[in-house]
User: Which sequence fits this backbone?
């Protein structure tokens, strides 16, 4: 994929990210490629939408993020919204989304520019709601304390006509999760949960999470949810500290939407998308979270090793039981041809391949 223009999302508070951004700019200069900063603060006390960010950056055809998973999510929000690829540069912290070590960023850009990279697709989520979401000014100060102003309120998707019977289709993209959680410490969220239009249960909880397989290692995991392969198409529902016996995660198919309605006796609730506050729900309001039509497109230079990263990031090598097995995995993978009965499976490359 020849690059004509590149957008940068940089964590300005990390010196290695700032240094890496300088390296990327120099690479762009040498190759005659335009480069622009995107998803940055605009003026004092306001932020731009994904569409505005793309326009301000001159509509790049590749986004490069330098920072942690939070920085990557900022870039992914814009990339998925515009169906372009994103390359995450790894700064060595606990994270699952970034791909390329910062020391290899120039080689990675060379590979992408020369067409030697692959594209991995990740499922994303979008949302419908009973009303347009917004955050009152006094509440925004509490929700966004310490992290700057909120993103602009989600607007209706321009390609879809508004139909009150189906709710308002919001221009929202989530790579990790959509979370509905209580605003006040002494008022829990009471919510009816529907999967594919049928009631599952009513919950009284600190919050509820609807996540993608990519987001299964984020907030959902932290409250006891399962780890799913990011290659799956599934929607994960996980309650947060529910006051009921049934406190398990439910994994729905990728084409089964999950609807959340605040019950009449519920406290007010905040809606966040990938950790960013996006609106407030009152009792009687509802949102529906479902798989988005378009996935996020990640740049990959080699086959992804999700389970190796899981082992590393979760420090599974520190478990005492690991001392019992230090050898290679059985069967996977000899250098001989793959047998017919397992040829359809996704296998690691032969040992002589990277």
Assistant:
């Amino acid at each position: 994929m020849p690059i004509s223009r590149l957008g940068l999302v940089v964590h300005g508070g990390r010196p290695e990210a700032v240094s890496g951004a300088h390296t990327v700019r120099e690479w762009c200069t040498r190759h005659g490629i335009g480069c622009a900063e995107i998803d940055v603060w605009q003026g004092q006390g306001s932020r731009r939408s994904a569409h505005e960010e793309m326009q301000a950056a001159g509509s790049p055809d590749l986004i490069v993020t330098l920072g942690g998973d939070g920085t990557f999510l900022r870039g992914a929000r814009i990339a998925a919204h515009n169906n372009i690829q994103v390359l995450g540069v790894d700064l060595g912290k606990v994270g699952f989304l970034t791909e390329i070590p910062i020391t290899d960023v120039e080689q990675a850009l060379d590979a992408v520019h020369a067409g030697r990279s692959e594209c991995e697709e990740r499922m994303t989520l979008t949302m419908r709601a009973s009303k347009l979401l917004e955050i009152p000014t006094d509440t925004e100060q509490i929700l966004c304390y310490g992290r700057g102003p909120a993103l602009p309120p989600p607007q209706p998707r321009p390609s879809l006509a508004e139909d009150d019977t189906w709710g308002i289709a919001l221009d929202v993209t989530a790579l990790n999760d959509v979370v509905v959680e209580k605003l006040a410490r002494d008022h829990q969220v009471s919510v009816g949960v529907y999967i594919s239009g049928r009631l599952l249960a009513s919950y009284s909880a600190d919050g509820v999470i609807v996540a993608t397989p990519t987001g299964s290692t984020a907030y959902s995991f932290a409250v006891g949810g399962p780890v799913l392969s990011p290659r799956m198409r599934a929607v994960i529902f996980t309650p947060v500290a529910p006051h009921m016996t049934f406190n398990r995660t439910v994994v729905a198919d990728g084409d089964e939407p999950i609807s959340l309605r605040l019950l009449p006796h519920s406290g007010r609730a905040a809606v966040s998308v990938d950790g960013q506050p996006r609106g407030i729900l009152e009792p009687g309001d509802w949102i529906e979270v479902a798989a988005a039509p378009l996935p996020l497109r990640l740049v990959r230079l080699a086959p992804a090793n999700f389970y190796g990263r899981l082992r590393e990031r979760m420090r599974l090598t520190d478990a005492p039981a690991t001392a019992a097995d230090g050898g290679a995995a059985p069967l996977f993978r000899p250098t001989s041809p793959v047998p017919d009965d397992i040829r359809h499976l996704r296998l690691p490359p032969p040992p002589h391949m990277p």
